[in-house]
């Protein structure tokens, strides 16, 4: 692999057109979108049984709304079996336990909506990572990553400078592997702790010489996640290159805004959802960074909606002040790896 492939791939990441959240046409003005054939305006209007304003409203699985007392009385009088049907459309509900309050229904719809957004995000990342340009090919032809990807030999670093770095070596021959006397780690497994490690790995620094395939490893990891093959405990992968971040180094953003800018498919993800999701931030190409990563004289940030410099966002994210449960993966050439203090790269 040539050094140019990393720069070419990273520079294309921010140029992809984000897919639309839905191919459905927008609902006509003045009307609300229907759910299961039921207009949402109906939810808080009147009960279909008593024709009065809803009292203690509940909905059946089909989406029709009734007063709790009305639907309970209706089923008591008409249902002779364990099944209960909707008085309005006749759809059967398996049990009365299936009734939902307005707040429960709202939560269900919100979760479904979030999952749709995350699915679109996976589609976007899959499109971005499934094809790559080899070497310095300027013809615009792109090759499927899975057809050319070569497993890299990644070992746990043992240097005193960065105790938890990962060193990337080209996997050429079995004899060469034997000579290294190191346990190989697949790129998909870099966050899996070794048996003797008592704490989970949160931050990983992978360094290797130019052109060895660090960016391809990042893309392979992301592609396998987006296709549902690996690391499905991660809710969201946030893929960023330092080359992209350099473009906004003098601007003020919150972490939430940063996600929205570089990953438009995540526009509908809120701060509340980020707090309860397992995120993985991948920062590729630390050696290309023009940011001033100051881990000593930093401003403490713990709110994903608080604006600051991009450098401050990154240092707080790496140190665990912002989204302490988030995973972080940084790639770099060896000469630039010392920008991350050893105390910030934790594995156990």
TrEMBL record:
Residues 202-336 form the NACHT domain. Gene3D superfamilies: P-loop containing nucleotide triphosphate hydrolases, Zinc/RING finger domain, C3HC4 (zinc finger). Pfam families: FISNA (PF14484), NACHT (PF05729), zf-C3HC4_4 (PF15227). Residues 47-89 form the RING-type domain. Keywords: Leucine-rich repeat, Metal-binding, Repeat, Zinc, Zinc-finger. SMART domains: FISNA, RING. This is RING-type domain-containing protein. InterPro entries: NACHT-assoc, NACHT_NTPase, NLR, P-loop_NTPase, Znf_RING, Znf_RING/FYVE/PHD, Znf_RING_CS. Residues 1-34 are annotated as: Disordered. The keyword NAD does not apply. The keyword tRNA processing does not apply. GO terms for molecular function: zinc ion binding. The lineage of its organism: Eukaryota, Metazoa, Chordata, Craniata, Vertebrata.
């Amino acid at each position: 692999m040539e050094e140019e492939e990393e720069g070419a791939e990273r520079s294309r990441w921010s140029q992809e057109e984000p897919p639309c959240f839905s191919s459905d046409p927008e609902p006509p003005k003045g009307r609300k979108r229907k759910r299961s054939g039921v207009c949402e305006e109906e939810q808080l209007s009147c009960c279909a049984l008593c024709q009065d304003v809803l009292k203690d409203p509940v909905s059946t699985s089909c989406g029709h709304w009734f007063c709790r007392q009305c639907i309970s009385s209706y089923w008591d009088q008409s249902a002779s079996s364990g099944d209960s049907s909707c008085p309005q459309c006749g759809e059967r509900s398996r049990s009365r336990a299936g009734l939902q309050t307005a707040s429960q229904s709202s939560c269900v719809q919100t979760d479904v909506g979030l999952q749709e957004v995350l699915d679109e995000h996976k589609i976007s990342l899959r499109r971005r990572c499934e094809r790559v340009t080899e070497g310095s090919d300027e013809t615009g032809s792109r090759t499927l990553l899975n057809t050319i990807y070569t497993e890299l030999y990644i070992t746990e670093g043992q240097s005193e400078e960065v105790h938890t770095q990962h060193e990337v070596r080209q996997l050429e021959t079995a004899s060469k592997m034997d000579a290294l006397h190191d346990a190989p780690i697949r790129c998909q497994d870099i966050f899996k702790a070794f048996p003797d490690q008592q704490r989970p790995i949160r931050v990983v620094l992978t360094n290797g010489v130019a052109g060895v395939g660090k960016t391809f490893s990042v893309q392979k990891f992301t592609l396998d996640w987006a296709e549902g093959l690996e690391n499905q405990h991660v809710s969201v992968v946030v893929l960023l290159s330092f080359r992209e971040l350099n473009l906004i180094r003098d601007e003020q953003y919150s972490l939430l805004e940063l996600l929205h800018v570089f990953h438009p498919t995540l526009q509908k993800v809120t701060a509340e959802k980020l707090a309860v999701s397992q995120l993985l931030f991948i920062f590729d190409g630390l050696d290309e960074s023009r940011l001033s990563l100051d881990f000593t004289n930093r401003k403490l940030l713990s709110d994903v909606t608080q604006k600051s410099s991009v450098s401050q966002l990154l240092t707080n994210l790496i140190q665990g002040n912002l989204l302490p449960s988030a995973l972080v993966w940084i790639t770099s050439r060896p000469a630039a790896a010392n920008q991350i203090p050893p105390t910030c790269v934790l594995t156990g």
